[in-house]
Specification:
- By secondary structure, the protein is an alpha+beta fold.
- The protein has three helices and five strands, in the order E-E-H-H-E-E-E-H.
- The strands form two sheets. The chain has a three-stranded antiparallel sheet with strand order 3-4-5, with no helix packed on it. Strands 1-2 form a two-stranded antiparallel ribbon.
- The two termini are 26 Å apart.
Length: 155
């Protein structure tokens, strides 16, 4: 964030970021660590540790809970300015060993959803929760040193 000169908030829905020089990567930087826009008064009132445990925001999902090394629970934010998401609740769990961790159990040696019958459907009168998964390998960055030849010549 060394290219940021100052930040202004002329109204509750606008943030102006002034840079010292052109920074084509600024949108990516603002979306990564240190670039998030947070509620100053709330953070000053509760402190950074409490804010990290009980964050607030204006996005499409609201924070419900976080259990270390287990899960984070989010729910749809009905007041989101961009429209409501098409689900009520989202539970995100780490799956370091996908096969061993899926489906999750509640410690009783059985899955936490109804087992399918021979027809492939959940038990009578029971609704199977909608589940999906995505493997994410992290952030990929291609760095170029523009201070060394031949990339140091802007023309």
């Amino acid at each position: 964030m060394t290219t940021v000169d100052r930040v202004e908030t002329p109204d509750p829905g606008t943030v102006l970021v002034h840079t010292k020089k052109p920074d084509p990567l600024l949108p990516a930087r603002l979306g990564f660590y240190g670039g998030q826009i947070i509620p100053k008064k709330y953070v000053e009132a509760v402190g950074p540790d409490t804010f990290n445990q009980k964050p607030v925001g204006t996005g499409p999902l609201r924070f419900v809970s976080w259990t270390k090394d287990d899960k984070v629970v989010l729910e749809a934010n009905p007041d989101y300015w961009g429209g409501r998401v098409d689900f009520d609740r989202l539970v995100v769990r780490p799956c370091p060993r996908w096969r061993r961790a899926w489906p999750p159990s509640q410690g009783r040696g059985r899955p936490d959803h109804p087992a399918p019958t021979r027809s492939g459907r959940a038990g009578q009168g029971q609704r199977r929760p909608r589940r999906s998964g995505a493997l994410y390998g992290g952030l990929y960055v291609l760095a170029v040193n523009s201070k060394r030849p031949p990339l140091d010549n802007p023309w």
